Amino acid sequence: MEKRKVAVLGATGIVGQMFLKMLEDHPMFDVALLSASADSAGKKYSDAVNWVLEGGIPEYAANMNVADSGALGSGKGFDIAFSALPSEVAETIERKLAHGGRGVFSNAASHRMYPEVPVLIPELNAEHMALVDNQKKKTDGFIVCNSNCTTSGIVMALKPLLKFGVKAVTVYSYQALSGAGHPGVPSLDALGNVIPFIKDEEEKVINETRKMLGTVKGNWVVDAPIDVMATCVRVPVRNGHLETAVVELEKEPSMEDVKKALKGLKGMGGALPTAPVHPLIVREEGNRPQPSLDVMAGTPERARGMAVSVGRLHFYGKRLRFVSLVNNLVRGAAGGAILNAEYAITEKYI
Amino acid sequence: MEKRKVAVLGATGIVGQMFLKMLEDHPMFDVALLSASADSAGKKYSDAVNWVLEGGIPEYAANMNVADSGALGSGKGFDIAFSALPSEVAETIERKLAHGGRGVFSNAASHRMYPEVPVLIPELNAEHMALVDNQKKKTDGFIVCNSNCTTSGIVMALKPLLKFGVKAVTVYSYQALSGAGHPGVPSLDALGNVIPFIKDEEEKVINETRKMLGTVKGNWVVDAPIDVMATCVRVPVRNGHLETAVVELEKEPSMEDVKKALKGLKGMGGALPTAPVHPLIVREEGNRPQPSLDVMAGTPERARGMAVSVGRLHFYGKRLRFVSLVNNLVRGAAGGAILNAEYAITEKYI
Amino acid sequence: MEKRKVAVLGATGIVGQMFLKMLEDHPMFDVALLSASADSAGKKYSDAVNWVLEGGIPEYAANMNVADSGALGSGKGFDIAFSALPSEVAETIERKLAHGGRGVFSNAASHRMYPEVPVLIPELNAEHMALVDNQKKKTDGFIVCNSNCTTSGIVMALKPLLKFGVKAVTVYSYQALSGAGHPGVPSLDALGNVIPFIKDEEEKVINETRKMLGTVKGNWVVDAPIDVMATCVRVPVRNGHLETAVVELEKEPSMEDVKKALKGLKGMGGALPTAPVHPLIVREEGNRPQPSLDVMAGTPERARGMAVSVGRLHFYGKRLRFVSLVNNLVRGAAGGAILNAEYAITEKYI
Amino acid sequence: MEKRKVAVLGATGIVGQMFLKMLEDHPMFDVALLSASADSAGKKYSDAVNWVLEGGIPEYAANMNVADSGALGSGKGFDIAFSALPSEVAETIERKLAHGGRGVFSNAASHRMYPEVPVLIPELNAEHMALVDNQKKKTDGFIVCNSNCTTSGIVMALKPLLKFGVKAVTVYSYQALSGAGHPGVPSLDALGNVIPFIKDEEEKVINETRKMLGTVKGNWVVDAPIDVMATCVRVPVRNGHLETAVVELEKEPSMEDVKKALKGLKGMGGALPTAPVHPLIVREEGNRPQPSLDVMAGTPERARGMAVSVGRLHFYGKRLRFVSLVNNLVRGAAGGAILNAEYAITEKYI
Q: Please, how many CA atoms are within 13 Å of residue B238, restricted to the half-sphere of its CB?
């Protein structure tokens, strides 16, 4: 298969960096363009970026010139855009690209709540791609969002539980610093401290969860009727959002039923290089998952960080408690968008 | 007033250290004896302890000899015992002391669930001291427990909400490393990580909360009929347990009603040196409380760390969310026990 | 004694915050004015500041209005200015104040290398105040600098060693995050990491050490002929710069001689409220000093954080190795400046 | 080539874990036996180990039975032993194995200072393998040590500088927590703190550096005449020892000469799977190396963590300052031993 030419927008930020890392030697994609803010435009990528990920700048990207995100227009020179743009500029830029015929796979929040845009995790709600069919009636291109990093950790564990009748879920997060980008949280606020507030995050978790678990009806998604409560808290961890949840169920499944359901969440098969064989990993140990041990869960090699780990399953009557862990930069950001693009290609959307 | 002679049991551990620090120049107490395990017995305190608190060993304690906790018998030489003993030995030793006529104020978990022993926070459930009257019918001395460090943070915020009809509460903790003592959690497990398990802690939070908010009926406490769910998680913070909770209420108070109720929790007045003027502090800022800023909340000086801070109040329908912060070594351990003893003396129990 | 009216310049930064904390209830000073950048001017202090120190904003300061540092002119309304201004603006503002008759005690680097300005630690080089006599021939006011935070930790340990003939010193630092201010170092760069570079810091340590240990000759200081080498490194510690040094000596003192010399560094006596009784504390334990245990060294209460701790003394032939610890926000910044002002008042410079 | 059967001794510790990780799918080795203390003997490895490395227990090892290290005798069933034994038991066990004909590649300190045992880094002192020829005159097997983790970081940077006449070196370390094993340093001692003492470490750095850079003369090594001073300090970093050094040189090379020398340190070529192409990487950026960015330096994939990074080169007159970073678990421990074994096989020592 011929590789598709892709652009990485917002390539100097931490999610942009993860895009570049995960796209290195990717069998389906060829990075043709990097963009960032006007300040960085015209520079060599290695001069423009303050690289913070382990392993350093991928060789292929170091000498590429950085384009101005605001001047991409309809997106000449690439078929697919991976967007790590800041929300405040993402909306306009991504829309122009979609109108220009590009497939936009966005990590930005701007379009997530638009009725015609799916918030996609292929293992969960592939049927939401029907919205893209609608989009394509109007424009050549389209926009597909991945969810917020915190939403992805909870929604992947909730999906298999839907059959037990999920009425309400109370979510608390233990979110890593990388979720705030770089420079992000000042070290004096982070070190040895816990900050019980992350701007706009709780609303995102609530709204995205309902949409992602909802049902496509005509031109939009009818939200799942789940009462979601979310409290988002920053902890001094580098990478990996841990989340705890108590779920109110209508039915009374046994613990074995629950585990079977979770383990039964199907992977996308070998066709998608970034898809993990097992998207959900159920840990039986009493003290797992943990960021330092489980943040890179997922096989094969290219899918490291794409599996969500779930543990500490416990019933309080009809309420089920669990703890989940998601790699916020991989499954919760760059990897999620890449998997969405792989899926869209396989399904001939682009 | 003549100072009472007190012993600190388990004086070399981190809670023992905090007892010594808080008892320095205390107007009501005079430290007459320190005890620790047989290994340390006979040593000078400064040789026996691996001191980990800021400021170093209080001068008065450095040269005291350490007695063997297991050989204290009925407790000659002191009236009051502050116990920071490990649970596995606390039960027998504390019981002997109580039979010997001592007032035992214990931070150990061993006696908390005994029907005849109050788990006391004077601002909340002073009436539970009626159990001590019962104890004193049988023995000259008595045992009063303070709650587990995590329980104290949640129960202080719940008490003023009882009048709105608390049906259920889901608690998640972000617990500091000092709660595990020293050596406690290995640094490789703690640094940049979150551990979603603390042995026996969830059960303690559940059971103690119900008991502490319950009602004395004759010789025991009838538990409060509250459905408590707790998930306890360790985070890389030195000191200060942050907790988040969602409370299901029967009534529908306004936010103003809730704040008024919380702020209205009465302090013990100036008679008790370690009692904070305001036991509950309601933070209006969107990102408080935080361990690094609020762990020493409480006035006057001697009551620093004795106030619990509450913030992020929010309604999801009839469910109320809040975040609380308790100094686990002070209000949640040594300071809690000292306040209990101050109260018992003032009320002539000893 | 009547209290002097003082201004705190740059009051919203972390050193400004520490000034406000240390000036609370100060027996010699009355805070009459707070200033910050034009952005903050006109606001209430509590609205302008992002407070990061434990314990919160001192009550006396919370409601004060913030003045514009750039518009202070000659400094009406106060006698003494404590400057925590950023270097890039400090020079002009401080100079105007000195010309206006104010005594300026500055933590900024701008004036430290001017020949007519002393870099003062009263216990070390009080005789450098002779430079102020020179300044006062030209202006009513004057400028006195305290040293860079890292310099203060090393120079206090070196001074008593001068009598053994200090030829060269190799310094390595383990510097706390608070030294970079707030927001300062991004948490992703700091957490679980070490950064072997701090802008301009090594030059400051080298130049200030030579000047501070030098000798006043007429209108300037002749540098001490010591070969200083410094490598400055940031570590994930909140507060407290640890430094290690190897000193080449001309003489061959015994270890007892060395300890005696260090312990012999005289305090300023009880007249200066912020002066510690023992400015240098020699730790005999094999693993001290440590930031978490020793950062607040110093008695009495008001001098907490003003003592430098020294340990791990060892000879390699004629080379002496030691480790020192300085509280970079207290002795190394706000406390240093306050002590300098206390000294200047006592000596009738103002 | 047929794979050699190897044993990993002390397989449950953190270095043992790294051995297992690095030996997974190794082209030259087949793990035939795991041993640990008597407590673990007889258990399945996954039950015996408290695994702390990212990625979890390698599948091949999880179900292996653990043997008792003390009962290995002459080592039936394997040709090569990788030893991560604690020093206190390593000496006897390793010696028996060598007498039994095994090639022992040890990370333990016990034998490093024996005259007949080389402390080997093949890129530096391959000629020290002559000592093994001597050993083999007496026993069928032999012992080869790798250096202490901290020594490896400094000695690799010093070796290329020898031609400029290294007279003395002052070393200061910023050592990671993993160097102390697990449980190792308690989190309360580590978090937000710096501990300026590591037992026996400074002596090791001093003695091993001299030996490793020395010259084989007959049956032993004549130490390099370098005056080594070392101060070893623990910092809250997970993995990666950063070290700073000032080196006194006889000659006066230009900075270009120095860089050329460092970059010129030759790799072992492609024959040794764990050998990095470039054993020393010179960083030109002003703030590198850093643990979080550079700890996995080294190519190809199997040699990740085997390269030492050097930066911040600066001359103070004839003294050269540099900062180096070594992966203490890889190049400084398991990887070092594995590379030594690969070299010994290639050179037909076994």
A: 21
